[in-house]
Amino acid sequence: MAQITAPLRQLLEKNVEWVWDQEQRQAFTTLKAAIVDPPVLKFFDQKQSVCLSVDASSKGMGAVLLQNDRPVAYASKALTSCQQNYSQIEKEMLAIVYGCEHFHQYLYGQREVIVESDHKPLEAILKKSIHQAPLRLQRMILRLKPYAIKVKYTPGSQLLIADALSRSQMSAQINDPSDEFEVNVLEWGQMSETMFEKLVEETKKDAELQQLHRVVMDGWPPTKPETPLEIRPYWSYRDEISGYDGLMFKGDRVIVPHVLRPEMLDRIHAAHLGIEKCKARARGSVFWPGMNSAIDEMVSECRTCLQFQRRNQREPLMPQEIPERPWSTVAADIFYYKGRDYLLVVDYFSKYPEVTRINHKNSEAVILAMKEMFARHGIPEKIIADNMPFNSLRCRDFAREWEIEVVTSSLHYPRSNGLVERNVQTIKRLLKKSNDSKQDAFLALLEFRNSPISGMEQSPAELLMSRKLRAKLPIPKHLLKPKSQPINDVRQRLRVRQLRQKAAYDQGTKQLSSLQPNESVRIRQGGVWNPAVVVEQHKSPRSYIVATSNGTQLRRNRQHLMPTNEPPMNITPPMEPVGEEERCSGIAPSTVRSSVRSPVIFPSTEIEEEHVRTPLGRSTRIRRAPSRLIENI
């Protein structure tokens, strides 16, 4: 080739007269023949694989069809003035479209066509779904659908032919899809003219987006460290970013300038939907780096959403430890039936229920009833009960005198004393059925005590008294004799029964995170979540002391507390100072110890009967404080 072109190259030397004579004409004719003959140019062989090498410059684009690294055909074309404003990724994609359509007769129907391009993002973007590409690229990708192409990244230093063709292009006009595209943007966007103008104006003022626009138009650097620092967050999306009509897009989503992002967050969360729905809503139209984190933070701190949040998920069951012997740990509660109050005490070991009617729901009546029960079965070591009235001053004095440890449950969380709550339902049903059938309720209670516990052979009476109780059913006399029960075997069966109940209960539960002092939370009150702050963790499991906005301190189970990302709350102190023992309702900041032993006693609530009211001569209804006032008490 050098020998053929020697006469022509002599004309380019200095001090040589430019003369076109027979020798130059012969060299030019020979050179043209050499270009179209093998090995410079070969005939197309449909049995061989096909490779299309393309490249785009700022003014044109070039393509060469290769088989076995030998050229079959060349093509080049100049870009229109509109296409010269395309970003570099769009120019490179347009070069692929031009090469495929120009060599349509060679490429259509091929099983696979390798396309060599020095723009690496195209290799990834053509593997994604078409809707993830920018709109202009979507149109170009659709034009490539008739061809089975596979884009392969090749460094520009190896695309010599295509690069030369793109820089020495032929002037020509090709169809310009930009007009139709602009209409598509306006129709798809469905944004008001005011919002469109605001986005364009703020995009021009946003230094980060302007830097991003320059990089998109000129081409991304080959590596992330070479990318300007302010636009590195966009590096992972570089193959999807484009600019149109003064706006920047990621695929078909507009990139929002910094100034407008708070407004967009308000619009996204206008309906106060949850985090996932807000994210899904935003993903359909807008984008900026860190948008998901911003939505997480906004929704998690939204006061309206926090106030009307759903209840916490149930936590796994935390069963009470099985006592070592009968009547050592009992549960107590007061229930109401047909205008009368009843005290129910259930043994945690034997499940034996003691029920008695009380005239008043005050501490004196409760203490008198418990003394009667304890005189029959002995004094238990521990009583698990609700706050009212078992946490009153007189009940504390009674517990100290009788050497009993009292453990109270959190307000509004009867589940922590589940044994007695379940027995309340059972005893109420017995009373209702006995009343409806005109049967003796005491006989029904006797039969219940004499019936075997589910999953076990023994009845509550056998576990407590070591014998069956004589009832109306015929029974041999020897079965009524006391019979010692194997305590260890009974405890093991009770434990198996307890684990079975726990496994059934724990389905669909979740362990809630623990809370720390001074942590902002929301407390469940009246069906809504109100702001509060954690004061300290109570000694009872999953129980905390929290302070509300008016300074009131309450004890609540973790089930009724929801941690938030809200700033610390300003707590208004109470109008009048209160003592240490009165600082919260039903809370035990300190332990009162007996001189004989060390039972755990909890402080009193504010309600304490100073004297028993003398009953009126006429009949009257029982007056109860509204439930909304009990909490304040």
TrEMBL record:
GO terms for biological process: DNA integration. One of its GO terms (molecular function) is nucleic acid binding. It comes from the Eukaryota. This is Retrotransposon-like family member retr-1.
